[in-house]
Amino acid sequence: MPIFNADLHCHSTVSDGTLTPEVLAARAKANGVELWALTDHDEVSGQQRAIDAARALALPYLTGTEISVSFFELTVHIVGLGFDHTHPALLQGLERTRSGRSERALEMAQQLRLVGIPGVFEGALKYVSNPELISRAHFARYLVEAGVCKDVQEVFRKYLTDGKPGFVPHRWASLGDAVRWIVEAGGVAVIAHPARYNHPNATQEYALFSEFKAHGGQAVEVLTGSHSSAEAAQYAEMALEFGLAASRGSDFHSPGESHCDLGALPTLDARLQPVWDLLAHRVH
Ligand code: AMP
Ligand code: MN
Ligand code: MN
Ligand code: MN
Q1: How far is the CA of 113 from the centre of ligand 3 (A)?
Q2: Does the first or last residue of the chain, that is N or C, have fewer Cβ atoms within 10 Å of its Cβ?
C-alpha cells in the first residue's frame, strides 16, 4: 500500500519555528507532503496564511495548533486539528494561555544572570517574531549564538529544564479546557509526542489518556520526530488499547535544528485508524 504522506505537526515564526508559514508550505510540498497542518504553540494567527499558501500550491491543509497544558506537575502538549480558526472561545482560551510568557521569560533570564549568563532576555528577543510568544526555543537559540552551548540539545540538557538554571514553572491551560476549545471549534484533539513526558509512574500516564478521552480527545501522535521506532510501537499499542486514532507529524521547527524534516516520517501501523479519516470534511 502506498503511504499517505500526512504531516500534521510543525512550527513557524508565529511561534518558535524559524520559517514563515509560506516557506513551510513550499517545503512541505517539495518534500511530498499530501496533507499538511501548521501547529504553532498556543497561537492560530498564522492559520489564514497557511491556508492561503497551501491553496496556492494545491496542498491539502488542516488547521492546527499545539496547546500547552499543565497536567499534575508536568507540561503536556495537546495538538488541535481541523477546527474553525476564528472560533471565539478557542481564540480567547489561546490568548489566556499565551499570557504570562513575557513575565516567565524575564524570570528565566534573571535566573541565568544569577549563574553568570547576562543579557539572555534581550538576546532571545532577537529570535522572536511574535511578541506574545517568547518560548524556551528562542532562549536556546540565543544561548547557542552566545557560545554558552554548542547546540540547542545541549541547552536543554544543561539549562531551561526542571532542576536546571533558567527553568521557571508555569501554569498553562487545563487538559479539559484545551480539549474543549478544540472540540467546540469543530476540531479533533490529539495528545502530542506522548513519549516525551516524564510521568512519575504508569498510573499517571493512564490518567492522562483516560481523562483526555473523557474530555472528548480522539487521537494520539504515534509518529513524530522525537519518537524512536520502539516508542512509536509502544504508542501504537496505547492507541489501540484506548480506542484512539493515530496522528503523524514531524514537529519540524527549523532546518538543522529539528530531528526530522517535513514529510520524512515512516508509515503508520496499518492496524491504526489515521486521524485524518476523522477530518476529511475539514480539509481546505
Ligand atoms: P515553552 O513552550 O516556552 O516551554 O518551550 C517549549 C519548546 O522548547 C518546545 O516546543 C521545543 O520547541 C523546545 N524544546 C523543549 N525541550 C527541548 C529539547 N529537549 N530539545 C529541543 N527543543 C526543546
Ligand atoms: Mn516548539
Ligand atoms: Mn510539543
Ligand atoms: Mn511541537
Answers
A1: 27
A2: N
